[in-house]
Amino acid sequence: MSDIDTNNIYTQLGLTRTVNGDEKAKDELGQAEFLELMTAQLKYQDPLKPMENGDFLGQMAQFGTVSGINDLNTTFNTMSASFQSNQALQASTLVGRRVMVPSQTGYLADDAPLLGSVDLDQPASKVVISIKNGAGQLVHRQELGVQQAGLVDFQWNGQDANGNSLPGGEYQIAAEVYRGTEVNAGIMYTVVDVESVTLGAGGQDLTLSVSGLGDIDMNQVRKIM
Fold it and tell me: Which helix (H) or strand (E) holds 197?
């Protein structure tokens, strides 16, 4: 309705427009003003050329569309604020939880084993997990045998082949997936602790700070433990 010169219409109809002290200087047609103008148009229309029904209905439809959009914007803003509050509440409950994320880096804590999974798109005749330290040395090798399609879980207690406990920290994990004579690398997931959560602008872009891996996007999380 912004293309309607409301001041000009009031002048043509011989009406005086009342402007509140806090009203914006730009021309805006509110609901009360619209109804007042419509009533005036009907009252002062030329009896030889009365307003067509189509014109009257068109103006009503135009105003109704604008009013409806304003109501929709108000509703949307309310829903958006509610969604953001809900996101913040859900985010706060993740702190201290464990999540599964795609990574070839696993984190061994001093008081908990390293947990991970291999994602298989089809069955495998054998799956072998290899774990290396920061220097690239193999410290653990684990055969999981025949596996069906889906997530195959594994864990490592932090001990080498001789039963010696290794220091906590980051370790590289990889999977060899055997199907007959064919060997492929498996898609790796690791389980890590959520240390903190950050909400982006407008409640969007939820970022998790996890042990050993730093910041990751919430949409990378495969499973919440």
Answer: strand 187-198
Fold of 98-192: Immunoglobulin-like (2.60.40)
Residue 91's SS3 state is helix
C-alpha span between 116 and 160 (Å, rounded)? 17
The answer to whether the CB of 173 falls within 8 A of the CB of 190 is yes
Strand partners, 185: 176
Residue type, 116: G
Element (H, E) at 159: none
Chain CA centroid to CA 71, Å: 25
- The torsion of the CA quartet 5, 9, 10, 13, rounded to 10 degrees, works out to 170
Q: What is the pTM of this model?
A: 0.60
Q: For 71-104, write each residue's pLDDT tens digit.
A: 666 665 665 555 556 666 666 788 889 999 999 9
Please, are residues 195 and 125 in contact by the beta-carbon 8 Å criterion?
no
Residues 6+ apart with CB under 8 A from 213: 101, 103, 105, 107, 190, 192
pLDDT digits over 109-167, tens only?
888 899 999 999 999 999 999 999 999 999 999 999 999 999 999 999 999 988 999 99
* DSSP symbols for 101-145: EE-SEEEEBTTB-EEEEEEESS-EEEEEEEEE-TTS-EEEEEEEE
The count of other CB atoms within 10 Å of the CB of residue 148 is 9
Pinpoint the residues of the chain covered by CATH 2.60.40.4070.
Answer: 98-192
